[in-house]
Design goal:
There is one protein chain. This protein is an all-alpha fold and 402 residues long. Helices cover 57% and strands 2% of the residues. It contains 15 helices and four strands. A two-stranded antiparallel ribbon has the order 1-2. Strands 3-4 form a two-stranded antiparallel ribbon. Strand 3 and strand 4 form a beta hairpin. The longest helix is centred in the middle third of the chain and has 29 residues. The mean pLDDT is 92.
Length: 402
Amino acid sequence: MTRSAAVLSGALIGPLLAVIAFAVYWSVGPDQTSTDPYLPLADAWLRGRADLDGSVYTWIELALYHGQWFVPFPPTATVAVLPFVAVFGQTFDTDLTSAVAGAIGVWLMWGLTLDLGLSRRSALFLTITWAFGSEFFWASVVGGTHLFAETLAATLVLAVLRLALARRAPILAGLLLGAAIGARLPVVFALPLVVGLYTGLPTRVGRPSPEQVAGTAAIGLGLLGPALGIAAYNVLRFGSPLEFGYGLITSRDGESVLSEPWYTHGIISPLYIPRGLFAMLGRQWDFVDEFPWLHPTWAGQAVTFTMPILGWLIRAPLRDPLVAYALGSGGLIVLVELMHGETGYAQFGYRFIVDALPLLWLVLAVIFRRRLGRGAIAAGLLGIAAFCYGVTAIYGFNFVGP
């Protein structure tokens, strides 16, 4: 094969992986059209309204404020489906938007692993594991109210990381990061890594150089637009730029979400961390005395059993500033997720990990630059097997517990 042919074949791998991922995500997942709040909200926006009729959309979590019902989530996911709704109305299968976002995320992961210096073989393995052996697979396949936003945020973060590693277009990186935050708020803690990449990953505190100031200012300028848009949207809905409406979620018979037993200390509290740690690291399968013996549960399974490849993070070279920043930012995201009162019901695996997963996969890529051993390959394949089994058990055979 000539050098030009080799370059061309390498350039085609990313798009090919994206096409394969899209086909799998779109064909496997359930139809979320009747449960997704973003379609009716996008339709309402097109009609010049920000609220929904609570007596019609009784299946959607809505926040009640001054007699009006609002979707209590940041706006990016609705912005993402707006063009689809403008063309197709509310009739298309919302798996489509999740599959599109997921496929783009797979393409970006392929590029990111190459950017980080992996061999093509290692990059291919890590990308396939991301696509089909990580919680990103479940989020992209299922979509819906929460998972579509998580897929979208992760994909946007991957785009930001690729720009930041190349130190290109900091304003665009800030804009995309702001959009990611507008899909999933905890992603704001990716900011230290992104700023660090543009400012040279400083290892000590000191007077910033003009280049560092300029890079930080450019990122801030990009963030400004989404931040102002989100704040204005919150004021329009709830009268405050910092109110997203989570605590205002109310059932149609007037019962507040805060009356639910897992929110005894509010939506977010450090007192929930032990519960979150169990969900993330300790929750197991249901064992039953008949084939196939191991049943997934809607409460989820720990990443210990679904993504064993994350165990290789203990080999992370912490003296590498890139690794230190990525783990620090990822750790902050995970910490916020652990403080959520509800640990992500109606899931396979632990869905909150998706918000930090691009940063954790970045660290894995750095680790596997040295060597991708048989143990890591086995762990990745176990993850693929776990998610393939989970999706098949739940949506193919209804083998799922509470």
